[in-house]
Design brief:
single chain; two-stranded antiparallel sheet; 245 residues; Spore Coat Polysaccharide Biosynthesis Protein SpsA, Chain A; 8 helices
C-alpha cells in the first residue's frame, strides 16, 4: 500500500523544520498483539488509544519534523483517519510481518534528504521529549544512539525450565526505544540485513553488524513497552500521572 503523504505548509516555520538538523521518526506499530490477544496500538487508556499517547509526545518534541507510522495493512485506512489531526504525521504505511519489515517500510516513506531518523515502538507511550532529545543529540555526535538501562536484576540462562547458568550482569543493558541514527547508516543497515536474510531484534543490532559504534543513553524506568495484559495497569497509571488525572 502507498504511503499517505501530507504536503508541508509553506513559510518560515516550514523552512526551519526542514533544515538538515531536523529528524524524522518512524513508529513501529504493525504488530498483531499475539501475547496481548488484541492489537496494542488501538487499546484505549485514559480515553485515548495507546498510539495516540505516543505520538502526542513526539508532536511536542522540538527537532522532530515529521513522523511515519507503520500499522497492520488492514488498519491503514482507519489509522489515517484517526491521525489526520496530528500535524507532524506525514505518512501512515502498511507494516510487515516482522517489526524489522515495518521499520523498513517506514523508512521508504521518509524523504531522502532527511539526515537523522528516530525509531520508536508505538506501544511505548511513556517517553518524554527530554529522552528523545538526549538520544537524538547523542546520535548526532556519534552516528547512532539508543535508550537503555543497566540491568539491575540477576540474570540466569535456563533450559527446559531449569537454571543452566548465572550470567554476569556487569556491562549488560536492557535496551529501549527511542533509537536514533544517521539516516544513511540506518538505511544501509536495513538494506544489508534484507539482502542477507538477517532478522535483528532491534535496529541497533542491524547497525552493529556494519561495525558502527552505538552510544548508550540512560533511558527511563517508566518507558514500558506494552507486551502483556498486566503491563496495562502500570502504563495507565503513568499516563494518568503525566496527564494530571
Amino acid at each position: 500500500m502507498r504511503a499517505c503523504a501530507v504536503r508541508w505548509p509553506r513559510g518560515a516555520a516550514h523552512h526551519r523544520l526542514t533544515t538538515r538538523r531536523a529528524a524524522w521518526a518512524v513508529i513501529a506499530a504493525g504488530g498483531r498483539g499475539v501475547r496481548m490477544g488484541r492489537k496494542k496500538p488501538g487499546i484505549v487508556l485514559v480515553r485515548r488509544p495507546v498510539l495516540s499517547w505516543t505520538l502526542e509526545v513526539l508532536e511536542r518534541t522540538a527537532g522532530v519534523a515529521g513522523i511515519v507510522v507503520a500499522v497492520p495493512a488492514e488498519d491503514v485506512r482507519t489509522w489515517r483517519r484517526r491521525l489526520a489531526g496530528y500535524r507532524k504525521v506525514r505518512a501512515v504505511v502498511a507494516g510487515g510481518k516482522e517489526r524489522q519489515e515495518s521499520v523498513q517500510r517506514g523508512l521508504e516513506a521518509v524523504p531522502g534528504d532527511v539526515e537523522w531518523i528516530i525509531v520508536h515502538d508505538g506501544v511505548r507511550p511513556c517517553i518524554t521529549p527530554d529522552l528523545i532529545r538526549r538520544v537524538l543529540a547523542a546520535a548526532r555526535e556519534h552516528g547512532a544512539a539508543i535508550a537503555a538501562l543497566p540491568v539491575a536484576e540477576t540474570v540466569k540462562r535456563g533450559v527446559d525450565e531449569w537454571v543452566k547458568e548465572t550470567i554476569d550482569r556487569h556491562g549488560l543493558w536492557a535496551v529501549q526505544t527511542p533509537q536514533a541514527f544517521a539516516a544513511s547508516l540506518l538505511r544501509e543497515a536495513h538494506r544489508r540485513a534484507a539482502a542477507e536474510g538477517v532478522l535483528g531484534t532491534d535496529d541497533a543490532a542491524l547497525v552493529e553488524r556494519l561495525g558502527a559504534p552505538v552510544r548508550l543513553v540512560p533511558g527511563l524506568a517508566g518507558n514500558v513497552k506494552i507486551t502483556r495484559p498486566e503491563d496495562l495497569t502500570l502504563v495507565r497509571a503513568l499516563i494518568r500521572a503525566r496527564a494530571g488525572r
